[in-house]
Amino acid sequence: MPFQSKGPRRSFGWKASAMFLFALLFFAWGIGNTSLWDIDEPIYAQSLKDQIAQHNLVVPTFNARLMPDKPALNYWLMWTGVKVLGMNSWGLRIGSAVVGALLILYLTMALRRLYGENTALICGLLTATALHSTVIFRGATPDPLLILTVTVALLSYLRGYLLPESRRRELLIAYAAMALATLDKGPIGFLLPGLIIVLFLLLRRDLAFLWRESRLTWGVPLFLIITLPWYLAVGIETHWAWDRAFLLQQNIGRFDDSMQGHRGPWVYYLASTFLGMLPWSIFLPQVFRDLWLSRRDSLHNQPKTLFLLVWVTAWIGFFALSATKLPNYVWEAYPPLFILLAAYFEKVRVNATHPARWGWTLSLGVLFLTGLALSIFAGWVVLSRQPHLPDMVEVGAPYMLAAVAAFVLLRRRRETEAWMALCVGSVALAALLVFVITPPLNAVKPSRDMGQHIAALQGQQPYRLASWRWFQPNFLFYAGRGNMPIRHLQALTELPAVLGPEPLYLVCPARDIPAVRAALPAAYQQQTVMVRYEIYNHENIALLRITARQKPTEGS
């Protein structure tokens, strides 16, 4: 199929800009409605506080120790948001919303020449309104940056492969994007994209393209210029301790053994991908059926389809073999699936393919049942185990209503209106989550309130922090100042060594208050500041204030 003309029409440029603004508003609205979610968000947030307090944005630390979890790029992004909006949920998360909107813009612009304007716009809309997009681009984590940079790297490489007249520019963009991905998450930022590219070229029997046309003599130096300065700086400053821990623990260790209890069966990512891409994942069976029926043409005469399939298979397959499993690990496999979905929807729109009506009905039935299952799970199963949580029975209603509306519209052969009904359902679900369901959860995440109590009691006066049998990174972020550390007690016999002239704020399960009081030296007194139920450990957590007793004055 010939490519469309190079120059984007002015109307398409306006549509792409409108898509970017819609995505930015969609990802950013109410982004500060909730306190940070343990454990990832406050770990990165507190590490940034440490770095700012130490005037050192090179070496990530947490609680007075090196933090080798992730490289520096995401910290720099969060630092930018904090400079604008402050050290709070808004400032820490706004960068992810901007990155998500940039992903939508890039997909829309990059796909125009490969698939046409309509498919490009549809892909942007599908990506923005997927369920996992509502979550991932609203969090202060490194994942949004990796998603953007990997998507740019792989699509730019594909564009360079298919468009000789812009090959040099596109390939250099691909190398730069892989370098930024490596600065955000490490070796995975170039190893997996590189593997996908090599597998694609092998299947195309065109591996020679790597050294013949891939501009390696320009790309490799560009990659090194972007990545090496920070990795060398952090290595020199920490005597290579950060680099060793990052490579051995956070990369090889995560692949070889599950970390933080994040494990799962081999079908884990099939289920998580289906849920993450809702409501659009219900149409994936039709897409793959259509690809199977046209497999000879798609794989031999349509290299872009082959590239997308290799991208999906290699990315999900790699993490399926990993011992540590998290839904976020395979989000980078969503863009090629959204592209295939958008291309399929466009074929249906122009009558280039004719899907079976029973297939559409079955898909919408699955969406309705998924919404029903969400409501049952959130409204009855969760509440039966967690009675402290607010009622969330309405969470599945947007999908159920959207499925019914889309079914009625499809019966009338109004496919475009049916897809828009699903978009409206996705936006409605996001609004429900952001403004109705998640804000009340702040009541069962007491760390922010504990921090506010400490600030009100202490003002500018010094104090210390300690924990016993309970700790969440959120507490250190909200309760501490700058790079203030917290002492994790291994036994209550350690308590006297932590005490000093300034107040000590100790968090512990409420049931342990008598034991803490019994362990106090006679010269100190304990005050219970607050006791609140906490969602993560499913028990009441107490904040205690321990201070030295005032010596009686003469004559009293």
Automatic annotation (TrEMBL):
Transmembrane region(s): 12-32, 90-111, 174-203, 215-233, 266-284, 305-323, 329-346, 358-383, 395-411, 418-438
Main location: membrane
Record's bilayer topology term: Multi-pass membrane protein
Protein name listed in UniProt: Glycosyltransferase family 39 protein
Keywords carried by this UniProt record: Cell membrane, Glycosyltransferase, Membrane, Transferase, Transmembrane, Transmembrane helix
Glycosyltransferase RgtA/B/C/D-like domain ranges (all copies): 69-230
Source organism of this protein record: Acidithiobacillus ferrianus
Record-level GO cellular component terms: plasma membrane
Domain of life where this protein originates: Bacteria
Molecular function terms from GO: pentosyltransferase activity
Subcellular location: Cell membrane
PANTHER family: MANNOSYLTRANSFERASE YKCB-RELATED, UNDECAPRENYL PHOSPHATE-ALPHA-4-AMINO-4-DEOXY-L-ARABINOSE ARABINOSYL TRANSFERASE
Gene Ontology BP term (one): response to iron(III) ion
Coiled coil regions, renumbered to chain: none
